[in-house]
Write a structure and sequence with these properties.
The complex is a heterodimer of chains A (114) and B (112). Chain A has 114 residues and is mainly beta. Helices cover 0% and strands 50% of the residues of chain A. Chain A starts with a strand and ends with a strand. Chain B is mainly beta. In chain B, strands 2, 4, 5, 9, 10 and 11 form a six-stranded mixed β-sheet that branches. In chain B, strands 1-3-8-7-6 form a five-stranded antiparallel β-sheet, with no helix packed on it. The chains are: A mainly beta (114), B mainly beta (112). The A-B interface holds A 4, 31, 33, 41-45, 48, 92, 94, 96, 99-108, 110 and B 31, 33, 40-45, 48, 50, 88, 90-93, 97-105.
């Protein structure tokens, strides 16, 4: 298993601002992912964070809105840009440390946009 | 796309009762995963299933991978208050094992 931490754990932000969320893993992993969980909803994959190259985004998510960095195999950031109240969600990073589909999740970042 | 339909959406049970929830899809999955999410936490993997027909247990939890590879169920026996949470089924998207699609979840409430 992998131990994953996220910062911040929660934040309240003003409309139009940006927030960068950090994800740190206790071991080197190839596959790292960012999910969004809107209130009362399931998890939706935003993108795969690729080390050393641009992230791979899922349909409905774009780099301008959710820029992602992956400078090494233990760390990634997700920025939520030009926020609106619709961006209020829990943002979760996860890793597939064994490459077989089993994912380990961070505790999430609870974002509220006013 | 590949979608997972999970039922029931919510359950209210008495402590000590058994629970059953299931997940179906119109697409074939090669892996079925069951997660539990406690309030304020990320999902935690409970059981992973890799073979059609496979039946796997983890303590009071039992899950089966349907023979058609289009469904799975999760049973919890003798429920306790700490079983409260949201249970998600999930399956890897297409051939990339790392990415998963998640069901809508089953919210379980256990009354002492």
């Amino acid at each position: 298993s992998a131990v994953i931490s996220q910062k911040p754990s929660r934040d309240i932000c003003q409309r139009g601002t940006s927030l960068t969320i950090q994800c740190q893993v206790d071991s080197q992993v190839t596959m790292m992912f960012w999910y969004r969980q809107q209130p009362g909803q399931s998890l939706t994959l935003i993108a795969t964070a690729n080390q050393g190259s641009e992230a791979t985004y899922e349909s409905g998510f774009v780099i301008d809105k959710f820029p992602i960095s992956r400078p090494n195999l233990t760390f990634s950031t997700l920025t939520v840009s030009n926020m609106s109240p619709e961006d209020s969600s829990i943002y979760l990073c996860s890793v597939d440390s064994m490459g077989v589909g089993e994912q380990f999740f961070g505790p999430g970042t609870r974002l509220t946009v006013l | 796309g590949q979608q997972l339909n999970q039922s029931p959406q919510s359950m209210f049970i008495q402590e000590g009762e058994d629970v059953s929830m299931n997940c179906t899809s119109s697409s074939i999955f090669n892996t079925w995963l069951w997660y539990k999410q406690d309030p304020g936490e990320g999902p935690v993997l409970l059981i992973a299933l890799y073979k059609a027909g496979e039946l796997t247990s983890n303590g009071r939890l039992t899950a089966q991978f349907g023979i058609t590879r289009k469904d799975s169920f999760l049973n919890i026996s003798a429920s306790i208050p700490s079983d409260v949470g949201i249970y998600f089924c999930a399956g890897p998207l297409n051939t990339n094992a790392g990415k998963s699609t998640f069901g809508d979840g089953t919210t379980l409430t256990v009354k002492p």
